[in-house]
Amino acid sequence: MIKCGLLGKKLSHSFSPEIHGMLGDYEYTLFEKGEDEVADFIKNGDFTGINVTIPYKKTVMPYMDELSDVAKKVGSVNTIVRRPDGTLYGDNTDVYGFMELVRKSGIEVGNKKVLVLGSGGASVAVTAALEMLNAKPVIISRSGENNYDNLDLHKDAGVIVNTTPLGMYPDNGKAALSLKLFPALCGVIDIIYNPSRTALVLEADDLSIPAIGGLYMLVAQAVKSSEQFQKKDIPISKIDEIYNCLSVRMQNLVLVGMPGSGKTTIAKLLGERLDREVIDTDIKITEREGRSPSAIITEDGESVFRDIETDVIKDLGKLSGKIIATGGGAVLRKDNYNLLKQNGIIIWIRRDAALLPTDDRPLSKGRDLNELFRERKPYYEQFADMTVDNTVPKDAVKDILSKLEAFF
Predict the structure, then answer these.
(1) Class at the top of the CATH hierarchy for domain 95-213
(2) What mean pLDDT, rounded, does the chain reach?
């Protein structure tokens, strides 16, 4: 029996078991170890092969009996195979994974200055791959010669690659720098895969700069590792197959639209069709506050309610693979866009104003709904990745599922 797994410090949200489950019939376990446990595990652990993630990619090197040329070059190991004689072979498939990520992105790195954010094990692998692709990498670190205090020296950078954990789940929303400092920028690559779109990727999208997250790299390096675990070749097409499958599963489907437009009903139907958990932001607010959104607005005012709503959305936006129905005014806060978009496809549920109910909706009651719709329409348009008209909810669901195919 082939026994494999992932060695790291905090692994509860790793996608690796799911990926390796699609690569072969072998056991794949998460091995969470403290720094004082790593040496004993490497020497005496019961495994055929393991992947290694932060912060142990350099830690495990002294325990290898042999290193691949790539591992020697980059000075870190992310794949270990125990040979039949018990000796350990260390390799680094991150270099291959990153080269495949660059290919997938379509971003041209050749002959360009590429700023590599971070100086850890992943940075070394990325830098090696960039050199193989004829790029001109410059490592940016906190205390190195090129650092975050002298970024003005690199305004001519053509591509930025983030290899730091900044912005990774659960500390979503953080970035090491602002892309606005780099007028010549033509591509952004963030090797973080959770969330799907980090703050850096979202800023690139906002600036119309091509950008990609790290999921494809994760899958590609896993495929290359699995080949060594199983001692067999895996078709390169398997990378795209698994990537597309995971991309679909990871994305939240986020419904926005006017109060009473049918978001709750459609969310429920989508949840049944896709076997996904359905979450309603108004229900979450009620559970947290002990009173309904309408009560909060009536008693404390809309501004207080919007603060609470954003706080709830901040937590929900970090989740993956959910159906999320938002309140009608969630689009009024610009901050909510990135919170929902980081792991989501945003769907505007549009319905004729004459069909919208107003009961228990203090912001709709007593107002001309056509006027309210005109006020909010630009916000729905700015948020939405797709628009679906809701006359018959079941038909709207079919429309959503049909349009989703274009996203993957």
Answers:
(1) alpha beta
(2) 94
- pLDDT above 90 for 159: yes
> According to the model, what pLDDT value does residue 358 have?
63
The CATH topology of domain 251-407 is Rossmann fold (3.40.50)
CA–CA gap between residue 303 and residue 329 (Å, rounded): 11
Q: What mean pLDDT comes out for the span 187-196?
A: 96
CA 27: distance to chain centroid? Answer: 26
Sign of CA dihedral 86, 91, 93, 94: positive
Characterize the bridge pairing of strands 3-8 and 27-32. Answer: parallel
* Interatomic CA distance for residues 152 and 183, integer angstroms: 11
Q: Which of 64, 84, 60 is nearest to 2 (CA)?
A: 84
- Res 366: pLDDT: 57
CATH of 3-92+220-247, one of 3.90.10.10, 3.40.50.10860, 3.40.50.720, 3.75.10.10: 3.40.50.10860
Phi/psi at 141 (5° precision): -130, 175
Strands 27-32 and 49-52, sheet pairing? unpaired
Give the number of C-alpha atoms closer than 13 A to the C-alpha of residue 315, restricted to the C-beta side.
10
Sort strands 49-52 and 79-82 into parallel, antiparallel or unpaired: antiparallel
Please give the positions annotated as active site: 57
List, for residues 291-300, the tens digit of each pLDDT value: 999 999 999 9
Q: What is the pTM of this model?
A: 0.92
